Amino acid sequence: MGQKFMKSDAKRVISLPDNAKAWAEEIGPSESDNYLAHTIKLLERRIFKIQNKPYLILTQKYTERQGSWLEEYPSARLISMERNHCTIFFPPGKEYGDKHARLFIAHELGHIAYHITHEGSMDGLKSSSEERDETEELFAWEFAFHLLSEKSAYYEKVQNEKVQNENNPYIIKDSDLVSNIKNFMAELHKDSNELIEKLERKLDQ
Ligand SMILES: [Zn+2]
Q1: What's the pLDDT at 5?
Q2: Which of 32, 85, 144, 160 is the most buried (most CB within 10 A)?
């Protein structure tokens, strides 16, 4: 089963964008399916510091090809067959909604957090289908609750700030972006005028 997923990953590599704008357009709006991406990144960093080797936590929606899983397990599944990564498969948002997808993923991340704390290594991480002890299962649900509660409070705060404060860091006008980049380039590069002109020409295209 692991091999099948690797094959589909390889296919994606072939269709990689070949210029800066196409790259940005492809990966810029990708937050939608990458639920809890910030949390995942932080967990990966913790694992890296503990194990002194990289570890990836991948998330992937069930596809139709894996439909039988979806019927059998209407939640996320954690698959861990390799020592350097695990994959959390989760049901498509349209079936269960983004909130459920996030909750399922948060629960599986709880298992990962448990391993960081209790084992100090990801080597013994089991897949969802294997027997887990009750302490770990409870930890995972408790983690899911606190994580999503924390995130909800954060987003609520940001939302309120957006209404009250027009200075929202997530929204930058193109003209402001260009002038900021030009200022940084002038500070950072020798011969910056030439470089800035080249960039302006590229952005005008
Ligand atoms: Zn569980």
Answers
A1: 43
A2: 144
Residue 8 alpha carbon to ligand 1 centre in Å: 27
Q: Are 117 and 97 in contact (CB under 8 A)?
A: no
Q: Encoding tokens for residue 49?
A: 């510091």
Measured in Å, residue 30 CA sits from the centre of ligand 1 at 27
Q: What is the pLDDT of residue 13?
A: 53
Averaged in consecutive runs of 10 residues, what is the pLDDT profile of the chain (205 residues)? 44 71 82 83 95 91 63 71 87 72 91 89 80 88 95 85 70 90 93 94 88
Q: What amino acid is encoded at 55 in this protein?
A: Y
Those residues with Cβ within 8 angstroms of residue 2's Cβ, 6 or more apart along the chain or in another chain: 79, 81, 82
Residue 7 included in any domain: no
Q: Which residue range(s) make up the domain with 74?
A: 31-204
Residues, the chain, total?
A: 205
CA of 155 to the centre of ligand 1 (A): 26
What spacing in Å lies between the alpha carbon of 174 and ligand 1's midpoint? 45
Please report the DSSP string for 23-54 in residue order. HHHHHTTGGGG-TTHHHHHHHHHHHHHHHSS-
